[in-house]
Amino acid sequence: MVIQQISQIARAFFSTNVLLTSGSPPRPGEISQAHHGVLFLDEFPEFARSALEALREPLETGTITIARAARRAEFPARFQLIAAMNPCPCGYLGSTLKACRCTPDQISRYQGKLSGPLLDRIDLHIEVPAVSAQQLIDAPAGESTASIRTRVVAAREFALQRQGSPNQALQAGAIDKHAALDDAARKFVYNAAAKLGWSARSTHRALKVARTVADLAGAESVGVVHVAEAVQYRRALRN
Ligand SMILES: [Zn+2]
């Protein structure tokens, strides 16, 4: 897998923006160069709003259209987006190690740099609490990457055998069919979507994550426990 490092990414956005406004003919920026790889963006809210919003199209369609004057070109851009950010400008909101110095207004302005439609397109939002040096040093080694990979490959195979495509590629009708929610799970999703004000896109994406959680557990149908886990992955920054 190609890991696009942050310095390259910063240049990627500059070149993409340049492509949007000048330069001829249009050529692929580094968003396209991350095609079938990983696009890692650190300090996510620090990117220009226009650059962040430009991610919406490839996240949805796997392509990016560069339109400039009379020229228009479409480039492949199906990447795995991984983005990291602090919870607030000082970085200590919710930390047990140090007090946050930010005002509520600063925090909401910082988190508000990521629009709802952009967050809708990010499937897993995970809060990673800061750990002390002692915790870091004393913690036992986690599960090995090789063993996690084995589980992931098996879950993907499970999905392919059921529906002929990975879960992320399922469209609306197929999601309902293959998610195979039991009654309790269905009710749980309805309640969560209403309470958290989810768009149709958010709801469908959460169902695909729930289907994947069930596949990792080797479950034929999606139950409350799988749906509840999926809901947890879509709650950060929405309180
Ligand atoms: Zn802070």
Description of the molecule:
- It is built from twelve helices and five strands.
- It is globular and about 45 Å long.
- It is mainly α.
- The longest helix has 19 residues, at 145-163.
- The strands form two sheets. Strands 1-2-5 form a three-stranded parallel beta sheet. Strands 3-4 form a two-stranded antiparallel ribbon.
- Zinc ion (ZN) binds next to loops.
- Zinc ion binds at residues 88-90, 92-93, 100-102.
Write out the distinct hetero groups bound to the structure. zinc ion
The count of β-strands is 5
Fraction of residues in H or I helices: 40-55%
Round the mean pLDDT to the nearest integer and report it: 84
The main sheet orders its strands as 1-2-5
CATH class of the largest domain: Alpha Beta
Structural class computed from helices and strand pairing: mainly alpha
Order of helices and strands: EHHEHHEEEHHHHHHHH
Overall tally of structural domains: 2
Helices and strands in order:
Blueprint: E1 3-4, H1 6-21, H2 30-33, E2 38-41, H3 49-53, H4 56-61, E3 63-68, E4 71-76, E5 80-83, H5 104-111, H6 116-120, H7 133-138, H8 145-163, H9 172-179, H10 183-196, H11 200-216, H12 224-232
Parallel strand pairs: 1-2, 2-5
Antiparallel strand pairs: 3-4
Bound molecules: zinc ion.
Residues 88-90, 92-93, 100-102 line the site of zinc ion.
Summary of the model, kept short:
With 239 residues, the protein is mostly helical. It has helices at 6-21, 30-33, 49-53, 56-61, 104-111, 116-120, 133-138, 145-163, 172-179, 183-196, 200-216, 224-232; strands at residues 3-4, 38-41, 63-68, 71-76, 80-83.
